[in-house]
């Protein structure tokens, strides 16, 4: 299970590593986020071999918003891009990541408790300043409960990306909606994560972000 206990909104937000906003075009996504929270995302980098790239907005010292898009400068990857990006038409908040350690053990315990987290993978990208970042995470192609159940990530020795991301925003709330809310809540309880989930016809992840112009909801 995570190396944090998330009983209450403050503890939950402290466990959030980053949230993922997928968009058909990176510049479009950057403009959309700037229009919503009045902070312009900084360039992140390319995920070589994955066919994607990103831009970032810090949402706290160790929390950030990742704007995630396909990369037209890379050839199409052998496997489909994560989060349905290949067929995406509209931008949306699709998933969230929680910080964890000993991910192999964490995943094994989660699966034993009925939460089908994806296999542990390794990832990397190069920042614009040439710094190489690397991490381990549960496979982002294995979306659980439409992204309401989070992925887990361990940055190891890499510097946390929030430190070099655009500043001026703060994550102040996170909740979700799902057609099978009770089942999703049970899975989150098995992970010790107190994310509020209410019943709705369509799944959604909703972040409340404080920016220079006040609070805004991103979904």
CATH class value of the domain at 16-166? Alpha Beta
Structural class: alpha+beta
User: How many DSSP-defined strands?
Assistant: 12
- Give the strand line-up of the largest sheet: 2-3-4-1-5-8-7-6
Radius of gyration: 16 Å
Whole-number average pLDDT? 93
Under CATH, the homologous superfamily of the domain at 16-166 reads 2,3-Dihydroxybiphenyl 1,2-Dioxygenase, domain 1
Strand composition percent: 35-45%
Order of helices and strands: HEHEEEEHEEEEHEEE
The name of the CATH architecture of the domain at 16-166 is Roll
Identify the overall geometry.
globular
What does this entry look like structurally?
With 219 residues, the protein is α+β, with helices and mostly antiparallel strands. Strands 2-3-4-1-5-8-7-6 form an 8-stranded mixed β-sheet. The chain has a 4-stranded mixed β-sheet with strand order 10-9-11-12. Residues 2-8 have low confidence and may be disordered. The chain has a domain at 16-166: 2,3-Dihydroxybiphenyl 1,2-Dioxygenase, domain 1. The longest helix is centred in the first third of the chain and has 12 residues, at 26-37. It has helices spanning 9-15, 26-37, 103-112, 181-190; strands spanning 16-22, 42-47, 52-60, 63-70, 92-99, 120-126, 132-138, 151-154, 170-178, 197-199, 204-211, 214-218. Helices cover 18% and strands 37% of the residues.
């Amino acid at each position: 299970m995570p190396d944090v206990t998330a009983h209450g909104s403050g503890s939950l937000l402290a466990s959030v590593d980053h949230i993922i906003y997928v968009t058909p075009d990176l510049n479009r996504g950057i403009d959309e986020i700037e229009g919503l929270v009045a902070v312009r995302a900084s360039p992140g980098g390319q995920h070589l071999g994955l066919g994607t790239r990103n831009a970032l907005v810090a949402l706290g010292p160790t929390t950030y918003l990742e704007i995630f898009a396909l990369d037209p400068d890379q050839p199409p990857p052998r496997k489909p891009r994560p989060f349905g990006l290949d067929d995406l038409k509209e931008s949306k908040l699709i998933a969230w990541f929680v910080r964890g350690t000993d991910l192999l053990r964490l995943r094994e315990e989660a699966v034993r408790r009925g939460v089908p987290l994806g296999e542990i993978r390794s990832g990397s990208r190069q920042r614009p300043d040439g710094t190489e970042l690397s991490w381990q995470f549960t496979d982002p192609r294995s979306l659980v409960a439409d992204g309401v159940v989070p992925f887990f990530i361990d940055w190891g020795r890499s510097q946390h990306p929030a430190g070099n991301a655009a500043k001026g925003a703060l994550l102040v709330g996170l909740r979700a909606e799902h057609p099978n809310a009770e089942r999703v809540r049970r899975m989150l309880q098995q992970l010790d994560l107190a994310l509020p989930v209410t019943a709705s016809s369509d799944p959604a992840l909703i972040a409340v972000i404080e920016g220079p112009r006040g609070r805004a909801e991103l979904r």
